[in-house]
Amino acid sequence: MRSIFILMFLLLFAGKVYSQEKAIIPLKTKAEYLELSKSQKVAGFIFLGGGMALLAYAAPGNVSFDTLPFVVIGGAGLTLGSIPFFISAGKNRKRAMNAATSLELRRLSPSPSTGQSSAATFLTLHLKL
Length: 129
Description:
The protein has 129 residues and is of the alpha+beta class. The protein has 3 helices and 2 strands; from the N terminus they run αααββ. The protein has a domain of 90 residues. A two-stranded antiparallel ribbon has the order 1-2. The chain is flat and about 90 Å long.
């Protein structure tokens, strides 16, 4: 009897230990997506401008051969590094344009089948992502 109790106790906690819990992902509003898109676009332009400035500095050939590879690789890296910022800015802008939220007050008419005599009012939230 004691071993059955211990076994049941262990099985009770084993289900919780081995199960996965879903992480709650907070939904963002249209304004938050637009702000994120704008900051990513600014970061993309900063990287692109920095990379182009380094490449323009190395283009005339007035740079010593010791520093030339670092300048060219750094400029190309910064220029190519701006691409993911522009891609994610475009995706977040699309998400912002698709996100539509509305808050609405609805009135439920009384139902003769349930015997309600007054109308119920409730709040509804519509969210489209």
